From TrEMBL:
Sequence segments annotated as region (Disordered): 1-53
Chain intervals with Polar residues compositional bias: 1-13
Biased composition annotated in UniProt, kind: Acidic residues: 18-34
Entry's transmembrane regions: 71-90, 96-118, 125-144, 180-208, 220-239
Pfam family, one: Sulfatase
Keyword Transmembrane appears in the UniProt entry: yes
InterPro entries: Alkaline_phosphatase_core_sf, Sulfatase_N
Domain Sulfatase N-terminal, chain residue ranges per copy: 401-542
Superkingdom as given in the UniProt entry: Bacteria
The protein, known as: Sulfatase N-terminal domain-containing protein
Keywords: Membrane, Transmembrane, Transmembrane helix
Keyword Transmembrane helix applies: yes
Length: 609
């Protein structure tokens, strides 16, 4: 097999050739030998489809255009270095994504260079590929962290959150259409594969360059390592951050710890969910002080503290709450309001629902699956257990089988297909809240029965992306919902609101006003002396709307005509009316079940599981 050499390759130090020139020549010779090894042997004409032919043509082009070839090599190397450094220094939140954050010395780059320089050719190639795949993982989890922090106010959990990705895909499909959802899904997969290919190519390129310039690269790695250790020891900073960075390793370490802690937490939660303060309470000792009352638990989607206190949303929402309080008082109702800290933020509403009803802190999907598969007593099921109430669920957001119906203790569930709606969808929401409540009245609440009614109602019109938003119509005009056709067509497009933070905040506030108005007008119209309404938010809106660092608090109100009902919660020190005061008590959402059961006469009889 021919070996291509140059006259300068045989030069020795001291023959007028510098060490750097010898190193460069040696590196080019090694590259030429690899190319020659791939070329066809003597007597064989190179096929235009063989790699050797292409390499020969590439060598010929580099010989004819040395400056262009050198510029291309330098540009490729610089791009590869920028990609690797960028991946190692990429933050996991959008606010931290600033140019100054990349003015750092990553320890992982120095260590990677040392490893590459110490390895022979084949192990070096393997190490470079593995390093590139590691950067792909790091970039992917950082991008997921960005998305989760932007929408859910927390980082991605590799042990728990993969189950949420199909839900995200379904949300995009319901909001923007199946074509967009498919494009986003395919685009995400292609992006990950592209990042992997680019990162591996970049690390292989840098490994090759380091090997070609071994002497200078070794000196450079030593200098970079010394500078890193010095900056770290002295705590030197630049642009508000440490010069010596270990961002990449730190991010992976945090995700690994988060995964391990989540797995340990699951085992502890299984034991916790089997113990229950009211697990062995006889039916006759549950909720005796509410016998004969029609009790309605209603969640308003994304109804959070920001709606009442944020300067953009609060003015309109506060006016609605004040007006609704006055209208209810005129109809004979009184209200008390406080705050609950939700187990979720920005989404995953079912975690808020189940936390409130179970008295357990259910802040992830695995906990939800664990508890809903068991027999832990929910507040709604306590009503069913007494035998003194009929229990129903009204859930216009449910569009498929929902096995949790049994766990919640519901005799009957009315989902999106059971309420007779023939009007248009409002983005994700299958029907306006006003229609859902009127259908609840026609099909359930307004019918004569032998027992009082306990209802579990989930309102969805304030679900993101808050476009288009329904408007109130005459209650006698609702019909089958077709009256909303013109309102839906005249509303904002979801795509326009999603991309505009200011508009998202404004439209979110309007959607809360609509939902609260629908519910309180329904109560004015159909409430009786025996009606008790408990309504609350399930979580704060996404971080882009509620703001970075917003609390997880949501408002909760109890409304009734019978003064004895509110007397039972007088020691809660809640604020009069529908708007909780800033200094009103704040409880964890998981505390509500036990407080409610005790307030209305239930006797604890614990079970240990």
């Amino acid at each position: 097999m021919p070996v291509f050499t140059r006259s300068s390759d045989s030069s020795q130090p001291g023959d007028g050739v510098s060490e750097a020139e010898e190193e460069q020549a040696g590196g080019e010779r090694e590259e030429d030998e690899r190319e020659a090894a791939a070329a066809p042997g003597p007597g064989h004409a190179p096929s235009p489809t063989l790699p050797g032919h292409r390499l020969t043509r590439l060598r010929a082009w580099r010989t004819r255009h040395p400056r262009a070839a050198r510029a291309l090599r330098l540009a490729t190397t610089a791009l590869a270095a920028a990609l690797v450094l960028g991946a190692l220094l990429l933050p996991n939140t959008l606010p931290a994504l600033k140019a100054a954050g990349f003015a750092r010395i990553p320890a992982e780059a120095v260590i990677g260079a040392v490893v590459v320089l110490a390895l022979p050719r084949r192990p070096r190639l393997v190490a470079a590929v593995l390093y590139g795949l590691g950067l792909t993982v790091l970039t992917t989890v950082n991008l997921l962290d960005m998305g989760f922090n932007e929408y859910l106010g927390r980082g991605f959990n590799a042990a728990l959150d993969w189950d949420l990705l199909p839900d995200a895909q379904a949300y995009v499909e319901d909001t923007l259409g199946g074509g967009v959802a498919t494009a986003v899904t395919v685009g995400a997969v292609v992006l990950v594969l592209l990042v992997a290919a680019v990162m591996v190519a970049a690390t292989i390129r840098l490994a090759h360059v380091l090997a070609r310039h071994r002497v200078r690269a070794t000196k450079g790695a030593l200098i970079a390592g010394t500078v890193w250790v010095t900056c770290s020891a002295l705590g030197l900073t630049l642009f508000g951050g440490p010069i010596a960075s270990e961002r990449g390793a730190g991010a992976l370490r945090v995700h690994a710890q988060r995964t391990v802690e989540s797995l340990r937490d699951e085992a502890a939660f299984v034991r916790q969910s089997k113990a229950d303060t009211f697990g062995n309470t006889p039916p006759g000792e549950l909720l005796p002080d509410l016998r004969g009352k029609d009790v309605i638990f209603t969640f308003i989607e994304s109804y959070g503290r920001s709606a009442i206190e944020d300067p953009v949303m609060a003015p309109g929402v506060d006016r609605t709450l004040d007006a609704s309080t006055a209208a209810l008082e005129k109809a004979g109702f009184a209200a008390r309001s406080g705050w609950l800290t939700s187990a979720t933020y920005g989404g995953s509403s079912w975690l808020g629902h189940s936390t409130t009803m179970s008295g357990l802190w259910i802040d992830n999907q695995r906990r939800y699956r664990t508890v809903s598969a068991g027999d832990h007593l929910t507040l709604t099921k306590a009503f069913q257990k007494t035998g003194a109430w009929d229990t129903v669920g009204v859930m216009p957001g449910v569009q498929k089988g929902w096995p949790e119906e049994k766990w919640y203790g519901l005799d009957k569930l009315y989902d999106a297909f059971d309420l007779g709606y023939q009007g248009p969808k409002f983005s994700w929401s299958t029907m306006p809240d006003q229609y859902a409540l009127e259908a609840f009245q026609r099909r359930v609440h307004g019918k004569k029965r032998d027992k009082p009614l306990m209802s579990f109602v989930i309102l969805t019109s304030s679900h993101q992306p808050w476009a288009p938003i329904p408007k109130m119509v005459g209650w006698d005009e609702l019909g089958d919902g077709s009256v909303f056709d013109a309102i839906q067509k005249a509303g904002n497009k979801a795509s326009d609101v999603i991309t505009d933070t200011t508009k998202s905040r404004e439209e979110y506030g309007r959607s809360i006003q609509y939902s609260v108005t629908s519910l309180t007008q329904w109560l004015e119209r159909y409430g009786t002396d025996d009606t008790v309404l408990v309504f609350l938010g399930d979580h704060q809106p996404i971080a882009r709307v509620s703001g970075n660092g917003a609390s997880r608090d949501v408002p909760v109100s109890i409304v009734a005509k019978d003064p004895r009902v509110l007397d039972k919660v007088a020691d809660w020190n809640w604020t009069e009316g529908l708007k909780p005061g800033r200094d009103a008590p704040v409880w964890k959402m998981s505390a509500f079940r036990d407080r409610f059961l005790k307030a209305f006469g239930s006797t604890p009889h614990p079970s240990k599981g």
